[in-house]
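Q: Give me the 3D complex with beta-D-fructofuranose.
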Amino acid sequence: MGCKDSKDVKKESEAEGTFYTEPFRPQYHYSPPEKWMNDPNGLVYYKGIYHLFYQYYPDDIVWGPMHWGHATSTDMLHWENQPIALYPDKNGLIFSGSAVIDYDNTSGLGTADNPPLVAVFTYHDMEKEKAGGTDFQTQGVAYSLDNGESFEMFEGNPVIPNTEFRDFRDPKVFWDEGSRKWVMALVAGDHLQLYRSDNLLDWTYMSRFGAEQGAHGGVWECPDLFELPVAGTDESRWVLLISINPGAPNGGSGTQYFIGDFDGTSFTSDQEEARWLDWGTDNYAGVTYNNVPDDDRIFIGWMSNWTYARDTPTEVWRSAMTLPRKLSLERINEEYTLFNYPISGIIELLNEQSGLRVEIPPNSSEAIVLENGNQSAIHFVSPLTDLTVSFKNEAGEELLLELDSEESLLVLDRSKSGIVDFQEMFANIQQMPLDNLQEGNLEFDIFLDASSVEVFVNKGQFVMTSQLFPTKSFDELIIRNDGNSVSIYPELKTYSVKRIWKNGD
Ligand code: FRU
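A: Here is the predicted complex, encoded as structure tokens.
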């Protein structure tokens, strides 16, 4: 390999004092030290460590032959870069997948005393793809006996061969307590397939779902299937996440979800229409952690969009992950709704700058100074009224959020937010319908980092995630009341957000 190990890069840049300080470098989101990253992979917790593996091409800042990069954390906020975990081998490149802890050593790949961490992923054989067949994606297994520090490929790979589907990938494996089996969710072009296994190595096909349901504007990718309690009840339901590209509501890549049931064999849902986990253009291929203590269901997504992922204006590395978000299910006006909202630990990163009571008469605005706005968070509760929230900087750039009460719509306009001309779609207006809104106010949490904004409404009932490339810090926040009565914000809070990298301030 002609590339430097990520550890070497880290050491060099730390010595120079330039570690993670390049233009647009996220300060509190995970991004790789250098080169190309896409999907989060193998999210698993073991012995106090949260692993984040990811699709990685170590030789360029555009997509190329895929490896699994690796980072670890004890809180999912502060990350330590690790050496590359999985390299392509004779079966192909290493595409997306998941990881589990095989506590009972069902696979026999470890011992009872030292259970293996087992990664299950897709092999993509470039030669076979070039030959034009439908047999180039298969599923493989690798295992680690030292908590992810090093991996061995399973000798019997591939564990699920394939001759039928061009797109046959992204296995999400979990232990299903109900059937006492390992279950694998896999996508095959336009639908989900479920497999079961006793040992993570021999897999049996069980069922399929979805060819006639949800959105089909593009290929189905990166499934995830899990059970969630319904808040405030004794009930629980199963949730299926499916990423699709293209076909998302604001263009390109996006993640839909289905609420339904899983009986150990089949997933069923009466949901016909797609529902979206995030309405912004930059939250793709997201999946959840296995084995998190307290059964929390934590999601991380890739903060980009295949439509322009290769064109964004960074040079050393490309793209970042979303904040880790806790998923929960609520029944609102008879409808099950999936919420996603930053994990509670995020509080540790927030320093409150101001907490103000703000009263804005109709057709007036209030300006608030943000110190280091591109590393800040804002919280406020607003009545459902016509409202514009804008972030401005001294380069004349502006990020706009507009609440349209009549249409019940939140609009995100990044068309003047900085560098936008690297690809046509990037400057498009993004819209999020606030359907099935409960009576009352809207609670906003907005997180700005050097190249992203994440907007959470009502603690994650409605979410928009978007990349941004402002050339200066957004140091002015302006809230304008476009409605015809006085708007009162009992407590408008602004925070600066701490940098997560160790040699930071
Ligand atoms: C999703 C995806 C996956 C695939 C991987 C390849 O972004 O297309 O389906 O496994 O990226 O890098």
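A quick observation: Residues 38-39, 55, 66, 95-96, 122, 169-170, 221-222, 285 surround beta-D-fructofuranose (CB under 6 Å).
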